[in-house]
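For reproducibility, we list the full input for the adenosine-5'-triphosphate complex.
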Amino acid sequence: MTPALALQDLRYTWPGRNGFGLNVSDFSLMPGESVLLLGESGAGKSTLLSLVCGIVTVSSGRVTVEGTDLARLRAGERDRFRAERIGVIFQQLNLLPYARVADNILLPLHFAPERRRRVRNPGAEAARLCQDLGLPTEILAAPAGRLSVGQQQRVAVARALIGRPSLIVADEPTSALDAATQDSFLTLLFDQAAEAGSSMLMVSHDERLGSRFDRVVRLEEIAETQRAAC
Ligand SMILES: Nc1ncnc2c1ncn2[C@@H]1O[C@H](COP(=O)(O)OP(=O)(O)OP(=O)(O)O)[C@@H](O)[C@H]1O
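The corresponding predicted structure, in tokenized form, follows.
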């Protein structure tokens, strides 16, 4: 079976003198699997996710998503591939604050025709996701910047899930939530990812999230790092 994600002999160093470096010899995520990748602040979790998404490209080695080696794609192709296959929930959420919630949710479909084709009625699907994520559908017309942080996190999840991408990548999406809200948020995220059949890779420093996942991996188990000199 082709893994949803495979990292092989990956090496990356941020540019500049004494740039932080990350090496991963072997890691894979199977279709439908959920993995929590744990690491301290500054350990390289966001760097790894940027490599997985093709936002930055490896210095050597391979990142393959459903069998496609990201380094073999040209920059534009890589952006299109990411939009088609990967739903990303960024640490800072990256919503467009002045755009309507509906437009934020539908944004990935503009860059991903295959993903767009899987959504028969985009407006209705955005409304369904909102409803299933516990958001009142009236907020679809509101600017995203007017929502509470918890609501914005759910919108970011809806945006990642629309069109059922094969891989969901999430960077500490629960860090701003209290324990009870965190719990219900994760339930919604897992239910929706399961319904979409998506694999999930989440990074966090919070071990308490581990019980939800098929597998918990510590970054230091799979990665060697070279720290930047301070
Ligand atoms: N754009 C960048 N340019 C140069 N170095 C960077 C860049 N982004 C991150 N780094 C460096 O990479 C190292 C790891 O940072 P990274 O953000 O990947 O860690 P993290 O585990 O996600 O941390 P946190 O949990 O605090 O978000 C740090 O030393 C950081 O300075």
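The pocket of adenosine-5'-triphosphate is lined by residues 14, 19-20, 39, 41-47, 205, 228 (CB under 6 Å). Residues 5-226 form a domain with the Rossmann fold fold (CATH 3.40.50.300). Both points were considered when choosing residues for closer inspection.
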